[in-house]
Amino acid sequence: MTRAQIEGLPGKGSAIVIIPTGSIEQHGPHLPVGVDSILGQAWLASALQHLPPAAPIYVGPPITYGKSNEHGNFPGTITLSARTLHRLLRATARQLAALGFRTLAVLNTHGGNSPVLVSTLREIQAAVGINAGMLSFGWKAPLPPHEAAQGIHAGQFETALMLAVAPDLVSMEHAVCEFPPRSAATESVGPIDAPSIYGWQTTDLSRTGVIGDATAATVADGRSWLAAGGRALADQILKLAEKVRA
Question: Per the domain annotation, does 59 fall within a domain?
Answer without folding.
Answer: yes
